[in-house]
Amino acid sequence: MYANDVKMSWEEVIEETRDFLSEEFEVDRDSILPENSLKDTLDLDSLDYVDLVVLIDENLNVKLTGEDFKGIVTFGDFYQLIRQKLAL
Amino acid sequence: MIVAKGAITDYIPHREPFVMVDNLLGATRERFESDFKVREDNVLVQDGYFQETGLIEHIAQTCAASFGYLDASEGGEPKVGFIGAVSKVLVHELPPVGVTIRTVVTPMHQLGNIYLVKGESSLDGRILLGCELKIVVSE
Question: Which residue of A has its CA nearest to B135?
């Protein structure tokens, strides 16, 4: 896939996602692990989810809807959602 | 103009003295536009100038009027909304009493009933204030 016009592997997509999530939500990058809770780790309220959607759109060119978040608990779930959207 | 001053309260829940939008000049799902004359007796005027809070409220009411107008156009009832968050506020200047300001709002993202919009108010082509708002619309 391409992010910011640079061809990236799936592993690189995950690492870049960890980078911008830790920076935007001011959390330790090492806490962003597949088994950890997305909501609890990033301390998301309903308004913060909009910021998350904007970040994913701007950085990965992936558009998410409210429906997409149903069943998303962990970062692992979230990565799979992005992967599906990217058709990787 | 699509909604004149006299009919604006058909589309927003606000009432005097807290109506901060006059005419709705345009409203599509991609762009809202309104104007507002700053009057001396406006509750958000201080020392002869419409304050930042007034400009932000004006932008929010432009959203409210536009959502209300679009809902009504599609046969629905206008919904109540409120400001969930204000961010990226840039204040360039405050408009004095007596002028008419113009505002353009661009919806950028929607997640369920929360809209992220970018608003910019201007006077004679000069930008007064820009900001982003998260508007939560009741379901």
Answer: A47
